[in-house]
């Protein structure tokens, strides 16, 4: 995820904290986040959030939850670009 130019550190921190709070939902199995670097695009700081679920149903419940919907509204004015990837872990 990248943030729009001019987004303050306080606004970015609010989005980070919102993701952290979503990790407390009962359907979330695991959560990690960090800040990525891209040598090809140094203008954009990329925040990466990884949320793990036990099932597709849990993921769907998460997406529909009031907490997640509030999170989306919180970041709407600050977020420039979001790349979401769903995948299954192969063993």
Task: Walk me through this protein's architecture.
It is a single chain. This protein is an alpha+beta fold. The chain has a single domain (2-81), classed as Alpha-Beta Plaits (2-Layer Sandwich). The protein is 36% helix and 24% strand. It has three helices and four strands. Strands 1-4 form a two-stranded antiparallel ribbon. A two-stranded antiparallel ribbon has the order 2-3. Helix 1 packs antiparallel against helix 3. The protein is globular. The termini are far apart. The mean pLDDT is 87.
Fraction of helical residues: 25-40%
Question: Could you list the spans in which at least 5 consecutive residues all have pLDDT below 50?
Answer: none
Structural class by secondary-structure content: alpha+beta
Number of strands: 4
Key words describing this protein structure:
91 residues, alpha+beta, Alpha-Beta Plaits, two-stranded antiparallel sheet, 3 helices
Quick overview of this protein structure:
With 91 residues, the chain is of the alpha+beta class.
Question: Mind sketching the topology for me?
Answer:
Layout: E1 2-3, H1 9-22, E2 28-36, E3 46-53, H2 56-64, H3 66-75, E4 79-81
Antiparallel strand pairs: 1-4, 2-3
Helix pairs in contact: 1-3
